[in-house]
């Protein structure tokens, strides 16, 4: 839904990073607004930081600029503790850290905007899903910390907390 809304706007490019290649969804996005170039790269947020950085180097080399990062990967499965933390928090931290190397004004970068998808459980834990709730609380806290550096890095960060 987020991608559908984004392509309705005046974008030049939309780059989607996901584990699952879905050509039909990419075609649908292209059909909504043929003026937007929609590109897909296979990506698993649980990959190490070095792999994320390599992929971003490829993307930045192709596009030259990237303005917004939306970290939207997430799972709700408290039976998979390590995976829940890896996807919901560690992957988000790695992706954010990797893009900061390209955007940080202290390193000559242009700045940018990071939108991390949290959850209301990051503020009001649900006792039935304590691992999920804790991972989303970590997202909120991490994002608040990054946001406080905006005047130094030029990178604005915020969370969207559905629920």
Automatic annotation (TrEMBL):
Organism superkingdom: Eukaryota
Keyword Magnesium: no
Known catalytic reactions: a primary alcohol + NAD(+) = an aldehyde + NADH + H(+); a secondary alcohol + NAD(+) = a ketone + NADH + H(+)
EC number assigned by the record: 1.1.1.1
Any one cellular-component term (Gene Ontology): cytosol
Database matches in Pfam families: adh_short (PF00106)
PROSITE patterns: ADH_SHORT
Keywords linked to the UniProt accession: NAD, Oxidoreductase
Stretches assigned to coiled coil: none
Top-level EC class as recorded in UniProt: oxidoreductase
GO biological-process terms attached to the record: alcohol metabolic process
A GO term for molecular function: alcohol dehydrogenase (NAD+) activity
Subunit architecture: Homodimer.
UniProt similarity note: Belongs to the short-chain dehydrogenases/reductases (SDR) family.
Name of the protein in its database record: Alcohol dehydrogenase
